[in-house]
């Protein structure tokens, strides 16, 4: 990508009307069935990652009103196991928008259907790029409108993660 095309996309993104974080918020739930579990009756980590990618993509699509592709997974932290028969709940939202990319945060919870107990099981940060439906090239994404202190904190922290991600990518190209 040339700096001329990146500059043009940046100007196009600034011209788009912004959307609040709330417009991207997504939630999905699934019952943990035997096919998704290991021999101990725990939800497979790979299945959690699959569900995280879907939940994060929903938030990115809602914000960008476009197709999106996963560009990177900055982190995924497994805190508690999810058991067979529990409900797994995924909550996602866009944390920050750059030119054509978006960082999405995902929190995963388990719910015991017999007791109602809920546990925070996983947190993840995933970056997506918005894709134009005709050219299949990256497209500008509208800015994010921040309303709460929490949204502003997430927005600020995302800039540091992006800087580190891009530095690592540049280092690996050498």
In short:
The protein has 174 residues and is an alpha+beta fold. The chain has three helices and seven strands.
Polypeptide structure, described:
The model has no long low-confidence stretch (mean pLDDT 93). A five-stranded antiparallel β-sheet has the order 2-4-5-6-3. A two-stranded parallel sheet has the order 1-7. Helix content is 33%, strand content 33%. By secondary structure, the chain is α+β, with helices and mostly antiparallel strands. It has a single domain (3-173), classed as Roll (Thiol Ester Dehydrase, Chain A), CATH 3.10.129.10. The protein is globular and about 55 Å long. The protein has helices at residues 3-15, 45-64, 149-173, and strands at residues 19-20, 26-31, 67-78, 87-97, 101-111, 118-131, 144-145. It contains three helices and seven strands. The longest helix has 25 residues, at 149-173.
Describe the SSE topology.
Blueprint (H helix, E strand, L loop, with lengths): L2 H13 L3 E2 L5 E6 L13 H20 L2 E12 L8 E11 L3 E11 L6 E14 L12 E2 L3 H25 L1
């Amino acid at each position: 990508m040339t700096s001329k095309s990146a500059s043009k996309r940046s100007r196009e993104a600034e011209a788009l009307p912004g959307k609040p974080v709330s417009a991207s918020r997504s939630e999905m739930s699934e019952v943990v069935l035997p096919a998704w579990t290991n021999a101990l009756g725990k939800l497979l980590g790979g299945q959690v990652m699959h569900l995280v990618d879907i939940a994060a993509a929903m938030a990115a699509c809602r914000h960008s009103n476009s197709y999106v592709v996963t560009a990177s997974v900055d982190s995924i932290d497994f805190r508690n196991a999810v058991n067979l028969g529990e409900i797994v709940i995924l909550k996602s939202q866009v944390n920050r928008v750059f030119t054509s990319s978006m960082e999405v945060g995902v929190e995963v919870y388990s719910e015991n259907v017999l007791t109602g107990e809920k546990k925070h099981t996983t947190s993840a940060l995933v970056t997506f790029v918005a894709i134009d439906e005709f050219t299949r090239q990256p497209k500008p994404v509208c800015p994010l409108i921040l309303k709460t202190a929490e949204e502003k904190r997430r927005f600020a922290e995302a800039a540091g993660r992006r800087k580190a991600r891009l530095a690592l990518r540049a280092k690996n190209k050498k």
